[in-house]
Amino acid sequence: MFRRLLDAPYLLLSLVSLFWAGNIVLGRHAAGHVPPVTLAWLRWVLAFLILLPFAWRAIRSDWPVALRHWKVLAVLAFTGITLFNTMAYHAVQFTPALNALLIQSIGPLLIAFWSFVLNGDRLSAGQAGGIALSLMGVLTIISRGDPDVLMRIEFNRGDLWMIAAMVVYGIYSSMLARRPAMSQLGFLGFTLGPGALMLTPLFIAERAVGAPIIFDLRSLAVIAYVAIFPSVLAYLFFNRGVQLVGPNRAAPFFHLMPVFGSALAILFLGETPHLYHAAGYALVLSGVFIATIFAPRSPLPTQA
Asked: Residue 304: which pLDDT band, with cuts at 50, 70 and 90?
């Protein structure tokens, strides 16, 4: 069953958005309990340790490939693991979830930009129209159907960090087109491990200044969630999804994150559903569908 899941790219990418929506909410929830670099370092170290028993054979088998392509793997580990999540966790220390979701909605545009700069990939008119339509849905959900809400949003330094984080993640996503041909677990091991290692000096520096950690039920639950779902599973699913359909075809699925985030708030926080939710969901899903069918299918290298 898991093997069949790994051959269903659009289901994989939808699950990624679900897991990452929870990551933003819980990252904000952990503010004041776990410092951002510490949260990111614990996330990736635990994720690598969780992955290792399943991936060590693949890592050993893919070792010669990794040595030949260490520069590409180092860039992917540094951008996608070391930098992006650390910057995002730092951002949500200062910015509300509304701003973070709004900024994350530019993800498909940044992926399209970097895919063009680094790989020469161009968006079709259908893709661009689908991304624009889904972006309208995101704004409908975030603004609660009231455009004046967007005009009243106040941006702060956390927003600048979030924008920078999305720029970095756009580079990571587009660089996946250059990933070496190796197994899924081997590739994940060669990005998670080095990514966590490169983050260690920042972790030591943050601990040296005495940033407080509150190890209570909230922080432990957040650490457990971020180590498993938005890390091991989401990166495995995202890498596989991009491998099957290419960066530009995967990018519109970023717009599902506000959809899942608001749905989770309705289900688990007791928020009341409104007409703007339905309108926003319809626009996002329509846009993702249009962007997907008009995007060229560009699978990346794989290894059996």
From this structure: very low
20: CB partners within 8 A, 6+ apart: 230, 234, 257
Domain ranges of the chain: 8-293
Could you say which DSSP state residue 82 is in? I
Identify whether the C-beta of residue 77 lies closer than 8 Å to the C-beta of residue 189. Answer: no
| Whole-angstrom distance, CA of residue 50 vs CA of residue 227 | 8
Q: Strand, helix or coil at 188?
A: helix
Predicted local distance difference test score (pLDDT) of residue 134 = 76
User: Structure tokens of 272?
Assistant: 């009341």
b (16+ CB within 10 A) / e for 47-79: bbebbeeebeebbeebeebbeebeeebbebbbb
What pLDDT, on a 0 to 100 scale, did the predictor assign at position 192?
A: 95
Nearest alpha carbon to residue 258 among 238, 227, 239, 281: 281
Residue 299 phi, psi (nearest 5): -65, 150
Taking the C-alpha atoms of residue 65 and residue 84, their distance in angstroms, rounded to an integer, is: 25
Sign for the CA dihedral angle at 104, 271, 96, 238 comes to negative
pLDDT at 116: 82
Percent of the chain with pLDDT over 70: 87
- Please tell me the least confidently modeled range out of 33-47, 131-145, 265-279: 265-279
Q: For residue 26, how far is the Cα from the chain centroid?
A: 14
Q: Residues 298, 249: contact at Cβ < 8 Å?
A: yes
Q: Residue 84 and residue 238: Cα distance in Å, rounded?
A: 15
Side-chain-facing half-sphere of 102: CA atoms under 13 Å: 19
User: Tens of pLDDT along 217-275?
Assistant: 878 888 899 899 999 999 899 888 888 887 777 877 877 887 787 777 667 656 577 78
CA distances from 209 to 199, 206, 212 (A): 16, 6, 9
